[in-house]
Specification:
Elements lengths: L27 H11 L21 E4 L9 E4 L4 E5 L4 E6 L2 E2 L7 E10 L7 H6 L1 H4 L17 E7 L2 E10 L8 E3 L3 E4 H10 L5 E4 L8
Parallel strand pairs: 2-11, 5-9, 8-10
Antiparallel strand pairs: 1-4, 2-3, 3-4, 6-7, 6-11, 7-8
């Protein structure tokens, strides 16, 4: 999966990626209804697939490389996998989508915040780059199943600086396995709902280069 050499920290440049501070917060009373809306009936993490994903992108438990710290998250940008390292030497592996060419930012981050059903506001850079797509949301997109961040978001920081990169759910599950986002890591909403409950704030997230090299 990964070598220990790939765990070396890096300094990051400023990012032009989605701001995940939305115009309004969803009321907890709405969360369960939205979770039910985006989760297929009789959902099974490893086999349910109404989205037509390639089977390799369905979650599964795999053997982790030695030396990786339990609790941490690793994103393989080549294979489009996210690994969550477990205490027993295994990892839960999920399929993801990553940033489009020039927008994906490999590096070493800390997950400092988690949010259920967050709102979302595109950054000025996103609006300038694609006004036809993002300008209408310059005041923010409210939370809900159609929100760009989906059902859950893990907020990535470098030190105390919010990078505006996130690992988040997506209302476009067919993008999993591709380079589709403005820099963030996308997951199927029922998949990140499961991951969200297992990830603690303070853990490290490693986003590896698209050429398969070390950080």
């Amino acid at each position: 999966m990964f070598t220990r050499r790939q765990m070396i920290a890096t300094t990051l440049t400023s990012l032009a990626t989605p701001a995940l501070v939305g115009p309004a917060l969803a009321a907890p009373s709405e969360w369960d209804a939205w979770d039910s809306q985006v989760t297929p009936a009789n959902f099974d993490l490893g086999s349910t697939n109404p989205w037509g994903l390639h089977p390799r992108y369905l979650p599964q438990q795999v053997r982790a490389n030695e030396g990786l710290k339990p609790g941490d998250v690793h994103v393989d940008a080549v294979a489009r996998y996210l690994y969550h390292i477990q205490d027993d030497g295994t990892a839960m592996r999920y399929g993801v989508a990553i940033g489009r060419d020039g927008l994906y930012e490999p590096g070493v981050y800390t997950i400092r915040r988690k949010a259920k059903w967050p709102g979302w506001t595109p950054t000025p850079a996103m609006i300038k780059r694609e006004p036809e797509k993002y300008a209408r949301w310059e005041e923010g997109m409210p939370p809900g199943p159609e929100n760009a961040l989906g059902s859950r978001a893990l907020y990535l920081y470098v030190g105390n600086r919010d990078t505006y990169l996130r690992i988040h759910g997506t209302p476009a599950p067919r993008s999993i396995g591709t380079r589709a986002s403005s820099g963030c890591v996308r997951m199927v909403m029922p998949h990140i709902n499961t991951l969200y409950d297992q990830v603690d704030t303070g853990v490290t997230a490693y986003l590896y280069p698209t050429d398969g090299g070390a950080l």
